Amino acid sequence: MAGRGKRKPKSSPQTETPNGEVKKAKESQRDEKTAVTGEMRDEVEKMYKLRMPDDFFQFWEFCKGLNADCPQDALKETLGLRLVGPFDILSKRHKSSSSSQPNFHLHWRYFYDPPEFQTIIQGNVDIQHHMGYFRDLPDALPVFIGENEAKKGCTITQMGDNIFAAVLLFLQKKRKERGQLKNEAALDQLEEDLKQEAERFDLPLEQKTKAMKQRERKVVTKTFHGAGIVVPVDKNDVGYRELPETDASLKKICKAIAEAKNDEERMKAFAPIQEMITFVQFANDECDYGMGYELGIDLFCYGSHMSCVDKSCSQLFCTCFKAQILEEA
After folding, report:
1. Which of 279, 293, 282, 243 is nearest to 4 (CA)?
2. Which of the residues are catalytic?
3. How far is CA 245 from CA 79, 214, 223, 312, 327, in A?
4. Which of the chain's termini has less CB crowding within 10 Å, N or C?
5. For residue range 230-251, what is the model confidence (pLDDT) as tens digits?
6. pLDDT value of position 181
């Protein structure tokens, strides 16, 4: 098996600063500027068991200003976007749920969404376009807004570190792709409003902020979805080791499994994966839990419906999470 050659240099240990810390310092300064009550904030975080950044609540207030009757549809006519996921809590839609205990961890989760991804905006339903917060750590603030078109694949595109930036970037991309639009005046007004609100809340509008660039130094591997994973690696370089296959060769293995005509062919095609899982077990024994997490993410992102692959993903994820792989990095 050929090595990936993707390992990062040892020069910058990844245990110094938790992801989201820079953003966290700014959140307290912005808190007084948002009109969302503490009760509403607590309700969302209670349901999702995730900390929500202030731009989430600020954007809700912004959309209420555009459409007081239905803030979730405030961007539907101009951009074809709809606020979903945790915004359903702010609109109290969960109160009318048929289930007494709805699973919010699966609420608006698309086929390729990894555990780090939380959908907040729905786009074109034909291509299953959506945007969401991406967290490296479950108890930290998001590190960026990701965009995915599930009908096309697992690729996650980074769209800034707040919703205002993500929607503005989407607006500008839409205008560039389609040229002159019928609702040009409405788009101009929306673009101006987004920029003004972002300035008021001191929110950056770049597609890749300084904090996002700093995160890239901590990414141990890009994975199939391209957004990368961050795992704890100490000063002795313990925490992650490379998979013994390149991305290209691993995809070929997954393709062979998915296209196998019978169980015998499928098990034969699965043999290289089983060998890698054995290597992962050795890595786990030496506390390099990141290797198993990477393999789990890649198998998950490939999207095969084969039960042997699904079971392997589940086992790899469970082992990593139980080993607290997503502790502060």
Report:
1. 243
2. 286
3. 41, 27, 12, 17, 26
4. N
5. 998 999 999 999 999 999 999 9
6. 61
